[in-house]
Amino acid sequence: MLSALRLLPVLALFGCASAAQPTRTAMSDATPPTGQPAELKIVLVIHGGAGVITREGLTPEIEAQYRAELTRALQTGYAAIQQGKPSLDAVEAAIRVMEDSPLFNAGKGAVLTHEGTAELDASIMDGATLRAGAVAGVKRIQNPIALARLVMEKSPHVMLTGDGAEAFATEQGVALVDPAYFILEKRRLQLKKMQDDEAAGGGHSSLGIEFQERGYSVPDERKWGTVGAVALDHDGHLAAGTSTGGMMNKRFGRVGDSPIIGAGTYADSLCGVSATGHGEFFIRAGVARDIAARMAYLHQSVGDAARDVVMGKLVQMHGDGGVIALDREGHAAMPFNTPGMYRGTIDADGHVTVGIFRE
Ligand code: ASP
After folding, report:
1. pTM here?
2. Which of 357, 321, 113 has its CA nearest to residue 207?
């Protein structure tokens, strides 16, 4: 039987997903198997992007690959927590796994710009100190999340972009990789299809009314694979991070919400947040900071705050996507207003739960 202690984080998960998910998908994804110890404080929550992700659209083999990679990222981050390392280490470690995986739109496998290049964005924030670091538009950094952390720890700045970020990386001894490292054939084909459709005047289903009105196209499948993590360490400190290739066919120099502190990433002493979705909307809604502010000023729970922003404010704006959020007691929230979001949690006992669909 579930004790009250065990129920709390699970209810937070369900509460957040419930407005989007009348069914119990998130609940069942989050429900531990019988025989688990009573304590269920979540210490790490991750996402691998939100969008039109459906059972029909994923073969069982591909679905299994996603579940395995999400599990590997959770266990890698968890190992850092177990070793008594700070939550920043867990966030960086989990995100590195997903950046190195070709499955996600971050690092290797990033979506491509209009010109067919990969331009990567990432950010990280330390909730205990409010220090933050970010990089945007980098083309030769294998693990942008690690460079974002170096910006935070080794520079007086919060964000470095493009050539400046890469020059800083070199100064810090980070090896630059060939830009071709990031580019996968599947991404080239997706870009080509999108550009062919655009040229044929077919257009695309919109990710947001304004985006369409401005003449920018979006992927047909409306799938984002941005990655993010939020962790809680033994000292009760939270950290959050996000890494992405941005949006397919984006214009040269476009920067989304992922590297913007307060939009795609935020952490303070109350909660940590990482977002995924249509960045232009997440920037305008100030998503990550809004969730933290609601908790601080309105004394909302992490579940209520995340739900109100994702299912309320963003839906009204036509901003598609979702967030992961974690409070200092280990309650996680993972609301999304899209059909699916790759996501997972690991609790203090190392019990992993992974979810993809809304069922
Ligand atoms: N939020 C990212 C961006 O707009 C995309 C994503 O989440 O996949 O750049």
Report:
1. 0.87
2. 321
